[in-house]
Amino acid sequence: MASEIRNRFTDTEMQIARETDLPELLSHLGYQVKRVGRFHTTAELDSLRIKDRRTWFRYSQGIGGDAITFLQQFCDKTFPEAVEYLLTFQGKARDAPVKTKPVTKQDEPPKEFALPPRNADDRRVFAYLRKRGIAAQVIRQFMNSGSLYEDAVHHNCVFVGRDHTGQARYAGLRGTYDRDGKGFRGDVSGSDKNIGFAIPCDPVSDQVRVFEAPIDLMSYCTLHRSCCNAVALCGLYDGALRTYLRNNPQIKRIVLCLDMDTPGQETEEQLRKKYAEMGYEISQEKPRIGKDWNEYLQKGKRQKGGDELSNINCDPSISISKNFKEEFST
After folding, report:
1. What is the pTM (predicted TM-score) of this model?
2. Which residue among 106, 209, 228, 230 has the highest number of C-beta atoms inside a 10 angstrom radius?
3. Does 68 lie in the same domain as 197?
């Protein structure tokens, strides 16, 4: 059947569709396209990377392809609908009528943000994060603050981002069942990506550490005796960092703790230049092994064969920001 569908189009038509300029296509669809190093990405899909303007890959879901597969994945197009749309976009339309623009997330009315209902207990989330190497006290501190809990329907980890008033504005989801190392990840509909998962700012400190994911931030807290100001971007879009800095003007130093893979390091270089030009003192802190802080934490524990790592500052008496519980307990 698949070959019959593809035979509806000539080789030339298929080549035209596949070689569609993706940054131009996504701009046409309403996405905010921007350059990140040698790649392009969007504000809406911050783990998306477009290479050579023709192929894409979304790291958060482990999927990728060309312009045809993008329309299938994100615009609910069938294969022939996607090809016909791209031919029209390229000015090579067939006689058959096609829509001038596919239905995308940008066409839908914005959904009101609401936190998922909370489960009666957080046992699955607690067990999952312990399996990832996070210290029990770190997990409890985030749970007690209301910034981490287990949702009642799917039993996902819910990482809550709050604005400066303490109002929940963002929620990231992480599945507690990893199949072949790839668990579910996503944001709750209506989440504000300009709000990150953060430790409430201690006004005494003029420094903030910046991570990609909440689990990386929690891993760092496990690895060190204390962690003061920190924010997880929940991706590679720096809107959460901008908001954090705007709300805490005493911050003068930024420590970038992003992943060691290509997207993370290219974003780090971009942020280094951007915020240095704004007058901030920028430095980088890297995990000694692994691609991110959680991988470092887990590999270190496996090497030592236990729950604690003797070669780093992993301490059960972990102290996070002193105002951590006070600000989010209401």
Report:
1. 0.66
2. 230
3. no
Domain boundary among 76, 107, 138: 107
Say how far residue 88 (Cα) sits from the centre of its chain: 33
Listed range (60-69, 155-164, 166-175) with the worst mean pLDDT:
60-69
pLDDT at 303: 64
Query: In the numeric block, which tokens belong to residue 265?
Result: 């390091």
Token pair for 97:
């009528």
CB atoms within 10 A of CB 238: 22
Which residue has 């005494």 as its token pair? 204
- Tell me the CATH number at 159: 3.40.1360.10
- DSSP per position, 238-257: THHHHHHHHH-TT--EEEE-
- Cβ contacts of 282 within 8 Å, gap of 6 or more: 253, 254, 256, 271, 272, 275, 276
Residue length of the chain: 330
Q: Edge-to-edge, what's the strand order for the sheet holding 168-174?
A: 148-150, 157-162, 168-174, 185-187
CA distances from 42 to 187, 207, 222, 269, 272 (A): 16, 28, 32, 17, 19
| Same domain (yes/no): 146, 77 | no
Sheet strands side by side (includes 197-199): 197-199, 230-232, 207-211, 253-256, 281-284
For residue 316, what are its two tokens?
A: 């059960």
